[in-house]
Here is the input.
Amino acid sequence: MFIRLHDIKTGFDEGEYALKAACAEALKVGKNSIEKITVRKRSLDARRGRPIMYTYTADVVLQKNVRYSLPQKAELKEYEEKYELPKVRYSGNVRPVVVGAGPAGLFCALVLAECGLRPVMIERGKCVEERVRDVEEFFSKGVLNTSSNIQFGEGGAGTFSDGKLNTLVKDREHRGRFVLENLVQAGAPEEILYVNKPHVGTDMLRRCIQNIRKRIETLGGTVLFEHTLINIIPTEAHISGIRVRKGDGTEFVIDTDTVFLGVGHSARDTFHMLQKSGIPMEQKPFAVGVRIEHKQELINDIQYNGIKNKKLPAADYKLVCHTSGGRTVYTFCMCPGGEVVAAASEEGMVVTNGMSNFKRNGENANSALLVEVRTEDFGSDDVLAGVEFQRELEKRAYIAGGGGYTAPAQSVADFLDESNTKPLKNTVVPTYSRGVRYVDLHEVLPEFITEALSEGLHCFDDIMHGFAGDAVMTAVESRSSSPVRILRDKETLQSALHGLFPMGEGAGYAGGIMSAAMDGMKAAEAYIHSLNGKQA
Here is the structure.
């Protein structure tokens, strides 16, 4: 039995003793009466006009026979809520195959492996150790490996990001806790279990991913890198196998009646293959825009109201604006103390993304600044029209950048003035890893995008004064989410082709590391439920 206390506050620069004292005060007991405190959640409250505080949810265990007063914001708990692995009553006759080693694929395979089902996981890219070298070569020399880059390879696109682990998905089954606990076991800091906006950074996430892969293999799973899905083999209305191409160009068939499809939002060749195979898909709205960079010091000053203290973390922000034209403009994947990176996966195209290390100690802050794109903007009923919309923008960005994967950029002040002069109005040095060329972004992006961005910048400047001042924008941010949805049954999570389980961000059912990992777990659970039904 323990007591869960909510809304416990301490000063942000106070130590653990302050939390114990605050819990004791809330319960009207002495500090020595507390046997154990487990922090369940901690968030930083830096709202203007108030002292900066930490707000906690904490589980408190008291010494036996201690009398206490239960405050209003508290509850008695008999046990800690945890994720329960599904029970397997029938294991099937063949090994399930997981396509894609991103968050959805990794955690789908992990659940299957923990349940004794020995999955085979294939990934077109390389293991994360080799993938890092390919990415660094692209950053430094512009040599793009189209199968091993920021989009493709072990860990998925999130490997080269800020490693954010928060999600808005309702989680009554505690899948999110399972993900976090496994990341901690794989080397992530224990604080991700309780901080309000957990992150591990790209540097730490890479190590965690390797250890999760090793765990899958220890449990009997098989992981095959540089193996690309090129075709699905159906037998009537059920999948019977897949054709795979190895890195050396040879092809072979894997016989299986179950395939989990976690290919990520950039697997455009896979989308084309699915379309030709008659797998039901639909167009899906997404968003495009730019990466905006400020000095991190400016963001700290704005968010902390000018308070400077080394104990304060690098500040972040999340902004949304509904424009007069009906478009939504918003920030996404904000990377405090991070850098803007070259994220292309196809030759002759420029794509930007953001990345931070765990310490978030870079000079600049960056975020995607996005405008919603609706299916009617695609100009076609083709299910893959959104893919072509993205490609066209990425090609235009490549040309505007002058080739070599240099990206087009413009200061915010010049953009709002509709001027293409060189950036004399800002001091922010762009961090984009292939370098930038200053141009007029109105000539690169569609008019409905630039109009919405302009209005959004003014709106955000009203919220965070200075946001539309000393800053630079780099184009194009086009891979914020998948442009298609691979349809699946709401109950079984299977495609119309039975045995095919679309999952994760690429299939259109997630939007980040955590939600993708949780969706992969859901797919594994649905499969196990179907297996158990076969036994019956």
